[in-house]
Amino acid sequence: MKESKLTMRELYETDFALWLEQTAILLQKQDFQHLDLPNLIEEVESLGRSDKRELYNRLTTLFEHSLKRCFTDLIQDYRGWTDTIRRNQKEIKKLLEDVPSLKIYVQQIIDECYQDALLLLKENPDYQSYPFPEICPFPTDSEQLLNDIFWE
Questions:
Q1: What is the pLDDT of residues 18-57, one digit of tens each?
Q2: Cα(42)–Cα(78) distance, rounded to whole angstroms?
Q3: What gap in Å lies between CA 26 and CA 24, rounded to an integer?
Q4: Distance from chain centroid for Cα 23
Q5: N or C: which end of the chain has fewer CB within 10 A?
Q6: Sign of the CA dihedral 7, 11, 12, 17?
Q7: How far apart are CA 77 and CA 96, in angstroms?
Q8: Residue 75: burial class (beta carbons within 10 Å; 0-12, 13-18, 19+)
Q9: If 0-12 CB within 10 Å is exposed, 13-18 middle and 19+ buried, where does residue 137 land?
């Protein structure tokens, strides 16, 4: 470990990148007594929350753009929405490959993500005249949702 007059806890507050580096060194050495455990635990827990938040946001965006693509007549925007749908399908698949335990979470949040996407559109004056369905018309099976073309 590099010599530092700061404790690991102080380092966390002043130089996060160096704190990460030093924490990794301590873990590799199995020097557990010098770890800043409260902040390490917080950071590890936040990693899981971050993945869940990313999944939630990407799924909501996928539904929002699918609704626009399927239920509006703004043909000039279809290509951009289609690109966004495909990009989110791809990114969600990559996230689920990296964090397989999130596959269960998809089923837990799918209805909420759809409702959030619907609310975003209902609140937007540009889309208030369109009759978006209250119940999700898209596949709720994650395999179909992430692999099929369901918006044409």
A1: 999 999 999 999 999 999 999 998 888 877 688 999 999 9
A2: 42
A3: 5
A4: 26
A5: C
A6: negative
A7: 29
A8: exposed
A9: middle
Residue 134: pLDDT above 60? Answer: yes
CA distance 47 to 102: 13
The tokens describing 34, both together, are 């010098």
Determine contact, residues 44/16, Cβ cutoff 8 Å: no
Express each pLDDT in 68-88 by its tens digit: 999 999 999 999 999 999 999
Contact indicator for 67, 134 with CB cutoff of 8 Å: no
Report the amino acid identity of residue 94.
K
Strand (E) or helix (H) holding 108: helix 102-123
